[in-house]
Every structure is written in C-alpha cells, then in structure tokens.
Write a structure and sequence with these properties.
The chain is α/β, with parallel strands linked by helices. It contains 7 helices and 15 strands. The strands form 3 sheets. The chain has a 6-stranded mixed sheet with strand order 1-15-2-3-4-5, covered by helices on one side. A 6-stranded mixed sheet has the order 6-7-8-9-14-13.
Length: 277
C-alpha cells in the first residue's frame, strides 16, 4: 500500500510539473516580437522605405490603451502601416482595435484590407466606414499610388473572399493590378497567404498577408504549422518569406492574436513584421 501511494504521489507530481511547464511556456509565447525583413527590390533610386505589417490583432489586449503594442510599432519609425485583416474580431469588442488604429492613423499613412473574422462579425460595412472616417485607406480591389522618401509605391489590396464568389475575388485581384505601373514598386496587401497560384499570375514585387497564425503550433526547424485555416494540417505558408515561382516575394505574418484564440500558441510568438525596402 505504501509503495502504491508513493507511485500515485510521483505520478501526480509529474503531472502537475508538466501542466506548470505547459502553462509557463504558453505565457512566454504570448510575448510579441518584431521580425525584420529586407527585400531586395531595386526599381528606383531613393531613400529606404520602412513598412510595418500588422495582421490578426483580433482586438486583443496589449496593455492599457494598447501602449505596449504602440511602443513596439513606434520604435520602428515606419513610413507606412499595412493592416492585413482581422484587426477587429467577431467575438471580442472593438475597443482595443480602435485604440490602436486611432493612434496609428494620427502618425502614419495606414492601408487596410478585410479578414474573415471581420466578415463573420456581420459588421464589416460598419468597420470599413469607421476606418474611412478616421483616415485609414480601405482597399477593396483598388490600387493607391504614393511616393515615400523619393520611392513610388503602388499599394494594392483585396477583400477577404469569405462571402464572395471566386470570380468576384479574382476580379478584385485583376482590378487592383490594373492600377499598377511597371516602374513602381508594386505591393499587394491581402489577408490570405495560401492563394499562391492566384498571386503568381501577377507581377507584384511583394505580397503581404497574415491569416495563418503560424499554424498556432509552429513546428521548429521545418517552419510548418500544425494546422492553419484554409491550409489544414502541416500548413506551408505560415511565417516569414516565400519566393514564388515568378521570383516575387510572399511575406506571411504570424499575427497578434492572443486571448481571442481557443488554443495557445507554441513556438509562435505574436509579431509585427518590419520590411525595409
């Protein structure tokens, strides 16, 4: 009996230790990081252009008035902010997202495309109207040409295709691209990274995306995700940079979702992405 009681205590201790380590690792991987990328794009002379890509905030909390996230972005001194969808959530309230957006648009040009959760909320039109009212550029199959530090950028964007037909979405892709100029740096802002076959049809220099949350559980060394939406198990396009068949670059952000997700992140810190062109 005494030996059996000792075995039970040992098993209980081991179980509790594993649970505590599991919880500690989960808490650690909640801390955001900054990923820096320097794509080699040499179309024009001029100073550097610094882009910060923010995706999949899901209205999550980053300190009082979102100050910890705001400080992280401000530290990069961006020239432009790209908002790659799911900035709002379909379950969490809008307050955290609005605090970030109001601060950002007062400092930087901001460009936004929708994500699937914004459509799932049933309030996507309301969200777009709000963004436009505070000065965010909402892209819906459009291209905006802008000059930053002597460099001309064509910034294009498409809606998330959640409630669109395939043709409606590909029509947006085509319409956006028609607004570009081959002598400009051409950027496509889109929520979904897995639509590689469609993106390869166009001569964008950069495609910026999110959505995958790095597969929630990112598998180290092989950079695959255990499961990502619209990619399934062992998802491929989850984090970092990918060179497409036409030589162009796809950038996938792990996003900033934390308390909005039912499963914890593993080997997968939330992040902002900084691109130095």
């Amino acid at each position: 009996m005494h030996k059996e009681a000792n075995k039970k205590r040992i098993r209980k201790t081991l179980f509790l230790t594993v649970i505590m380590l599991f919880a500690a690792w989960s808490a650690y991987t909640w801390h955001p990081v900054t990923e820096r990328i320097s794509p080699d794009i040499t179309k024009e002379t001029g100073d550097r252009v610094r882009i910060v890509l923010v995706t999949d905030l899901h209205s999550c909390f980053y300190g009082k008035d979102q100050k910890s996230l705001i400080r992280r972005i401000d530290a990069e001194n961006p020239d432009v902010l790209m908002l790659g969808g799911d900035i709002f959530d379909d379950k969490l309230g809008d307050e955290n997202a609005k605090k970030l957006l109001q601060d950002m648009v007062s400092k930087y040009p901001c460009y936004y495309v929708t994500g699937n959760h914004e459509y799932w909320s049933g309030r996507v039109s309301e969200m777009k109207q709000y963004l436009e009212s505070i000065g965010v550029n909402v892209l819906e199959g459009e291209c905006v040409t802008t000059e930053i530090n002597g460099v001309t950028l064509d910034i294009c964007g498409v809606d998330d295709p959640t409630y669109m037909s395939r043709k409606e979405w590909t029509d947006q892709l085509q319409s956006a691209y028609e607004g570009t100029n081959e002598n400009h740096i051409k950027i496509l802002l889109t929520h979904r990274p897995e639509e590689v076959y469609e993106y390869e049809k166009y001569d964008y220099d950069l495609i910026l995306s999110g959505h995958a949350h790095a597969g929630q559980f990112r598998i180290p060394f092989i950079n695959r995700g255990l499961f990502a939406p619209d990619q399934g198990f062992m998802a491929e396009y989850i984090n970092g940079t990918y060179t497409l068949s036409n030589g162009k670059l796809l950038v996938v952000s792990r996003g900033l979702a934390r308390e909005s997700t039912p499963a914890p992140r593993y080997f997968n810190h939330p992040e902002i992405v900084v691109l130095n062109l």
